[in-house]
Amino acid sequence: MEKEITGAKIVIDAFRNEGVDRIFGYPGGAVIPIFDELYNATDIKVILTRHEQGAVHAADGYARSTGKVGVVIVTSGPGATNTITGIATAKMDSVPLIVISGQVKTGLIGSDSFQETDMVGLTRPITKHNYLVNHIEELPHILKEAFYIARTGRPGPVAIDIPVDISVAKLKDYKYPDSVNLPGYKPVYEGNVKQIKKAADEISKAERPLLYIGGGIVMSNAHQEVRELAKRTNIPVVSTLMGLGSFESNHKLFLGMPGMHGTYAANHALMECDLLIAVGVRFDDRVTGNLKTFATKATVIHIDIDPAEIGKNVKVHIPIVGDAKKVLTKLIEYVKPRQRSNWNDNVEAWKREYPLKYNQKEKREILPQYVIDSLNGIVPEDTIIVTDVGQHQMWAAQYYKYKYPKTLLTSGGLGTMGYGLPAAIGAAIGNPDKTVILISGDGSIQMNIQELATAHLNCVNVKILIMNNAYLGMVRQWQDLFWDRRYSSTCLKRNINCPDVCDGSHKKCPEYYCPDFIKLADSYYIKGYRVENPDDVVPTLKEIVSFKGPALVEFAVHREENVFPMVPAGKSLNEILVDDWR
Amino acid sequence: MQEKHSIVVTAINKPGVLARISSLITQRGYNIENVIGTATEDPNIYKLNFGIRGTDEQIEKIVKQLNKLIDVIKVEDISHKKNFIIREYLVIKVRATNSKRTDIFELIDVFRAKILDVSKTWITIELSGPPRKISRFIELLLPFGIQQYIRSGEIALRE
User: Fold this and answer.
1) C-beta separation of A469 from A371 below 8 A
2) Which uninterrupted H or E stretch holds A202?
3) What is the DSSP letter of A256?
4) Cα-Cα end-to-end distance for chain B
5) Which of A89, A99, A136, A455 is deepest in the core (most CB within 10 A)?
6) pLDDT tens, A202-227?
7) Which residues between 37 and 66 in chain B have a beta carbon less than 8 angstroms from any beta carbon of chain A?
C-alpha cells in the first residue's frame, strides 16, 4: 500500500476488502472526492439512480436477493435526507446496508452551512449503528466495523457520515484493519443446548404443534433445516410475509401466510395450536391481530438471534437466542420423529374448505389475483418477485407459489410504497441471469417512477406489472369496508371537475388515467403493454418473459376488488372474514 | 406495577453516547426522570445512572433494547439489588428568619448536612446520602419555605 493515502482511497480500499463490486449512488459536492476515486475503480461498478431514495432501495433489493451487503453513496444535506425512507425500510426488515453520506467540512459542522444536515442525529433511530468521521485516523476502523455490524447478528443498515475534508485528507501508514474491537457487540449464534433439548421435549409431547417461520429463516439460510424439521415431525408450517419462499408454497404441510390477509388455515392453526415453534419471527401486529387472544392455548418456543425480540409482544415459555440455522440443526438432532395425527387432518381440512379464491371466469374485467396466479408456470422457477406496497403486495403474497428463499422482496415492516421499482433494479443487477418480476400498483409505481431511466440504461431484466385500478386500493378497501365508502383522496383519476364527494359510483368518472403509462414507458425507451382483456393476460406474460431487458405491462384491473381473507385491525385471528360479507 | 427503576449503563465513552441512550428510551415511549453520566476511572468508559418508571416487564424490555446499542457494554437494573451503594446530592435554599433559624440548624445537625451560605432570610444547605434521606430532609424543610432545590439524581457503585 502507498505511504500516504486519502480518505476517499481508504473508502474504495474498504470496498475491495469487503468484496463490494456494485454500489448505488448519486453524487454531490460533499462526495466528489469519493466519486472521483470510483472513476478509476473499474472493478467497482456504480449504478447511478435518479433519486437517492431509489439508490437505497436498489441497494436493499441487491442485498436481499444476493445476501451481500448493499452499499450506497450520497451527498450531504438533501442527498442524505433523501435516504431516510430507504434506511428505515432496511432497518425494519433487517437488511444489511452501508449508507455513506458526504458531510460539510469538519470545521463547518454545526454552523448551518450549505447542504449541511445532522445525518447522525437523523439516522440514529433507523440504523443498527451510525458514525460521523471526525478524524481520518478513525476512518479505516469505522469502515471495518460498519461492514461487520451490518452483516453479523441481526443484520441492518449502518450509516457513515464522512466530511468532505476527511475524504481529501491523507493518512500515513494505512492498513485496512483485519479485526474489530467491539466490547458492546457480541451476537450469540449458538443456542443454549439445555433450552434446545427442552424444546425437543415439548415437540414430542405436543398434540397440535405448529411451525411459525419468518424472515430470520431467509437471513440465516435455514430453509433446508426448516424443511428437515417439518419432514421429521410432520408439523404444519405457516410463514410470515418476510419468510415466504423459505418453505415451498406447494408443500402439503404448508398452510400459507397468517395474519391480516393470511389464510383461514394459517390463522386458525395459530389460534388452536398447543405448541408454537416460532423461528426468526417477531410477532408483528399484522400477524398476531389482537395480542390478548393470540395463540392462548400454546406453549411458545421462540428462536431468534435478537434477544430483544423475545418476549417483546408475546409471552415466551422457551426462549432460545441464536442463529436459526444453528439452533434448528441442533433441534433436529434431539427431536423425535412424529407421526401424522388428527391435527394434520384438521389443518388440511381447513386448507381444503377455505382456500384462497377468486373467480375470473365470471368477470369481464381482469382480476389482479388472476394476473399473479398466471405467473405460476409461465415465469422461470428461480424468478425473483418484487412488490410495492398495497393490495397487489398481498395478492402477490397469496397467489404466487414461492419455491426458494430470497425470491420475494417486499417492504414488510415499514410498508414503503415506491420500494418496488428500485429494489427490482437492484435485484436484477445482483442476479443478471434471473428474471425479476415487479408486481406494483398504479399508486406505488409513481412513487419512484423516475427509476425507469435506471432500468433502461442498465438494461435490467425487470418486468414491471402495474395493477392499475386507479385507486390507492388498500386504503380504498378500508374506506369501503369500515368507512362507509367515503373514498377520501384515494381515487387517482379524480380531477378538478369531479363532484366534492364520490363513493366510486359517479356517472361522469373521468375516462383517462394520468399518466399514460405506455407513453411514459415509451419515453424511457421501455416496451410498454396495456392489457384490458382477461384473455390477453397469459399471452402478454409469456411474451415479456421471452426476451431479456425491461418491459412494462399495465393491467386495467377490476377497480373495487378487495383483498380477502381479512382480519380487521385489532381483531382476533379467528374473526377472519374469508369473503366479502355484504 | 409501575415503579421507578434505577438503571446503570456502562458504555464506550464516545461522542453521542448519551444521545443514543436517551433517544432510544424516548423512542420506546418512556421518560427519563433523572440522569447523571460521566467518564470513569477508565477514560474510555462512560457510566450512566438514570431512573425511569415502568413495570418490571417493561423495564426488562428497555434493558434488552439498550443492550442492543453497539456502544453499550452492560446494562443493569439495580432497583431490586441490595449490593449497591446508592447516593444522591442535594443543594437546597430555605427561608430562615430569626425565629426559625435554630430549628433549621437542629435539622442540619441531625442530618449532618452542611451550610453553604447564610443571609438574613435564607440558608443554603448541601446534603449527600441515600435518596430516601434526601427526600426526608426536603420533607422536613418544607414547612419553613423552600425557595429552590436541585437534586443530582442517583449514582450507584457495587459494594
Assistant:
1) no
2) helix A193-205
3) -
4) 28
5) A99
6) 999 999 999 999 999 999 999 999 99
7) 60-61, 64-65
Q: Of A211, A205, A243, which Cα lies nearest the Cα of A228? A: A211
CA dist B14 and A364 (Å) reads 65
Query: In the structure grid, which three cell numbers stand for residue A275, read together?
Result: 405448541
Please indicate whether, in this complex, the C-beta atoms of A134 and B60 are within 8 angstroms of each other: no
pLDDT at A2: 55
A408 forms beta bridges with: A385
| Closest CB from B12, B20, B64 relative to A308 | B64
Yes or no, beta carbons of B61 and A120 under 8 Å apart: no
Indicate whether B1 pLDDT > 90: no
Segment B55-108, tens digit of pLDDT: 999 999 999 999 999 999 999 999 888 899 999 999 999 999 888 899 999 999
Helix (H) or strand (E) holding B114: strand B114-118
Distances (CA, A) of A537 to A252, A365, A374, A375: 29, 11, 8, 10
Give the ipTM: 0.89
- Which one of A132, A184, A311 has the shortest CB-CB distance to B69? A184
Confidence of residue A581 (pLDDT cuts 50, 70, 90): low
Cβ atoms of residues B51 and B6 within 8 Å? yes
Q: Measured between alpha carbons, how far is A338 from A214 in angstroms, rounded to an integer? A: 23
Chain A residues touching residue B70 (CB < 8 angstroms): 128-129, 149, 182, 184-185
Q: How far is B42 from chain A (nearest CA, A)?
A: 14
| Inter-chain residue contact A185 with B15, CB threshold 8 Å | no
Q: Which residues, other chains included, contact A498 with Cβ-Cβ below 8 Å and sequence gap of 6+? A: A491, A506, A508, A509, A510
b or e along A275-297 (b: 16 or more beta carbons within 10 Å of the residue's beta carbon)?
Answer: bbbbbbbbbbebbbbeeeebbee
**CA distance, residue B134 to nearest chain A CA (Å):** 35
Rounded CA separation A77/A28 (Å): 10
